[in-house]
Amino acid sequence: MAEGIAKKWADEHGIRALTFASAGILGIVGVPASENAIIACKEIGVDITSHRSRGTNRGLINSFDYIFGMENAHIQYCRDIAPERQSRIYLLGDFGPGANGEEVPDPLGFELEYFRRVRDKIKEHLSRILPFLENEI
Question: What is the pLDDT of residue 76?
């Protein structure tokens, strides 16, 4: 959901210099977004139907300027496999002005309403982060 929401924001702001990609730490590859994630995103005009999962690896981490994880476990995993990038790996809820260190839970397996709450939390954090990134380019 975060990748789709970030891409839509960049498109709405005419920003072509930012690239967004998502990857998980469980090594699950090629699986589409869940039905509830697709519905929750569609409700805000974000189409993630073509999304397919991929795993995080050192090469991927090194190919981006910033890495944002949803949970502390994601941050630790990324820092463990790419220690040289530690200064560029952040918790989504712990970056930028007004950040509170909040983790964004994985909604997989929950009802649609929970996906909506997670989606809105992602939007809240990205609304703080993306303007900062825009100023970085």
Answer: 97
Element containing residue 137 per DSSP (H, E): none
CATH superfamily of 2-131: Response regulator (3.40.50.2300)
CA dist., res. 47 & res. 44, Å (int): 9
- Which sequence spans correspond to the domains of the chain? 2-131
> How far from each other are the two terminal CA atoms of the chain, in whole angstroms?
23
For residue 61, the tally of other CB atoms under 10 A from its CB is 19
Paired strand residues for 93: 102
The CA distance from 3 to 9, in Å, is: 10
Q: How much is the mean pLDDT over the chain?
A: 95
> Per-residue pLDDT tens for 18-29?
999 999 999 899
Q: Could you give the maximum distance between any two Cα atoms of the chain, in Å?
A: 39
Q: pLDDT by residue (tens digit) across 76-115?
A: 999 999 999 999 999 999 998 889 999 999 999 999 999 9
